[in-house]
């Protein structure tokens, strides 16, 4: 089956033995007859220390054509966040494609793994790659009904678009901790509550989409949000999610959400709603907020 003593030592989790065999001249990149490498079996067995050891020994991180998945794909499939981070730290190709034309983000989105998606998004992975079915990672998350992942990817798409068009708004680490996960911070609690009230008690059906279009949400992003269906009043949750995504971008741009929401409601034709926004219902956030 082509399993060399070196491969078997890694498979069994025996780092010292593997090191001795390498020192004796074993080929670190040899494949078995099933096209498995030592790095792949270490990842599949969850041996983080061996993965780190093999990376340190300069094992090839680029999969051979006959291998179905890259090491990073395997880490995602195994929901192994520490291994995924180690591979990314070693400059593994974050946008590597497997035999189904899926990126690691496609797999993480399909699995609904928030932490892995967060790591990949923060590392700047490609959000537009299409799998063999012509689906982006956003479409995959939407199809799999992972609303949290959908919102994270939309936040990332909008953030990276903003940094391209307005480089001054890119995260510099001074005030904001970049994250695309759901916001549970106490600093944004009141503004989030006000946005919830706007979505659930004031916006009528389809009005959230009018606002989304005004804020340059793409058709694909709007469709992905709408995919979550909880009944005839789903539009309320759709609106709330859209508003929270907007808030995320506003905070990362170091802008005052109260001021911008008021001005944008007026500009988008929602003057009566804008008139209801007072300092008591939607106040300016204090400086030094963190998007978490």
Automatic annotation (TrEMBL):
PROSITE patterns, sorted: ANK_REP_REGION (PS50297), ANK_REPEAT (PS50088), DEATH_DOMAIN (PS50017)
InterPro entries: Ankyrin-DD_containing_protein, Ankyrin_rpt, Ankyrin_rpt-contain_sf, DEATH-like_dom_sf, Death_dom
Domain Death: 207-281
Keywords of this entry: ANK repeat
Signal peptide: none
GO-annotated biological processes: signal transduction
Protein name, entry field: AKD1B protein
Naturally occurring in which organism (per UniProt): Tachuris rubrigastra
């Amino acid at each position: 089956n082509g399993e060399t003593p070196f491969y078997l030592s890694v498979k069994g989790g025996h780092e010292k033995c593997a090191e001795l065999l390498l020192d004796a001249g074993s080929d670190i990149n040899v494949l078995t007859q099933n096209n498995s490498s030592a790095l792949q079996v270490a990842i599949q067995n969850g041996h983080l220390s061996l993965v780190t050891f093999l990376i340190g020994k300069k094992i090839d991180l680029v999969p051979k054509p006959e291998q179905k998945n890259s090491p990073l794909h395997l880490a995602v499939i195994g929901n192994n966040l520490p291994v995924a981070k180690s591979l990314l730290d070693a400059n593994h190709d974050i946008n590597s494609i497997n035999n189904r034309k899926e990126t690691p983000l496609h797999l993480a989105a399909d699995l609904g793994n928030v932490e892995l998606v967060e790591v990949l998004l923060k590392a700047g992975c490609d959000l537009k790659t299409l799998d063999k079915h012509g689906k982006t990672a956003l479409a995959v998350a939407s199809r799999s009904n992972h609303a949290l992942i959908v919102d994270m990817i939309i936040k990332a798409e909008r953030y990276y678009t903003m940094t391209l068009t307005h480089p001054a708004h890119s995260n510099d680490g001074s005030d904001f901790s970049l994250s695309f996960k759901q916001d549970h911070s106490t600093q944004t609690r009141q503004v989030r509550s006000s946005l919830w009230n706007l979505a659930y008690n004031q916006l009528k059906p389809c009005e959230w989409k009018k606002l989304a279009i005004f804020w340059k949400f793409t058709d694909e992003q709007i469709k992905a949000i709408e995919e979550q269906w909880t009944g005839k009043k789903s539009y309320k949750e759709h609106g709330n999610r859209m508003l929270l995504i907007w808030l995320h971008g506003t905070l990362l741009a170091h802008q005052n959400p109260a001021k911008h929401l008021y001005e944008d409601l007026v500009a988008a034709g929602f003057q009566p709603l804008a008139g209801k926004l007072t300092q008591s219902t939607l106040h300016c956030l204090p400086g030094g907020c963190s998007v978490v």
